[in-house]
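Query form — protein Fe2OG dioxygenase domain-containing protein

QUESTION: What is the three-dimensional structure of this chain?
INPUT:
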Amino acid sequence: MLHHIGSMPIREIIYHKKPEFTLGTEPHYDPTSLTVLHQDSVSGLQVLVDNEWYSIRQNFNAFVVNIGNTFMAVSNGRYKICLHRAVVNNKTTRKSLAFFIYPDKDKVVSPPTELVDYNNPRLYPDFTGPALLEFTKKHHRADTNNLHAFSMWLQDKNVEA
Ligand SMILES: O=C(O)CCC(=O)C(=O)O
Ligand SMILES: [Fe+2]
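ANSWER: The C-alpha cells for Fe2OG dioxygenase domain-containing protein are given below.
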C-alpha cells in the first residue's frame, strides 16, 4: 500500500506469517537519502554486520533510521549504507511502516565542498534521484559496490546520450 505525504511516500508493508523460514525482502540497500521505519511488536528486520545477520530488536516506541545510497553519496562515503533484509515470522503476521525520504527529483546529488579534499577525493559523480531509482530497478545489486556500479552505469549512459 502506498500513501503520499507531499513528495514523500510512506509504504505499509505486511508480511504474512509462513511456517518455514522465508525472506520478506531480499538483502538490499535502500536507494533513499534516509528510510525511517516503524515496526510493530513482531521482529523481522535484520542487518548484516561482519558477515553475520543480526535481528533489530523491535520497539513500538522507536524508529529505525536507515542510511540510503543517496546519503552515502552526499556525505562522500562518510556515512555508510547497511545491508538489510526482512524475514517472515512463522507465528505472527508483521507490519512495518516505511517512510522513504528522497531528494527532490530535479536536484543534483553532490557532496558539500567541505567533505571533498586531497585526502577525501570525490567517490561518486553527480546524479539525480530518478537516475539512481532507474538503476536500482534495472540492476538490483546487493553488494558493497552498489554505488560504484551505479557510477559506472551513469558514465556509460552519459556517453550514450
Ligand atoms: O520491513 C522492514 O522492516 C524493512 C523494509 C525495507 O527494508 C524496505 O522496504 O526497504
Ligand atoms: Fe530497505
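ADDITIONAL NOTE: The chain has a mean pLDDT of 86.
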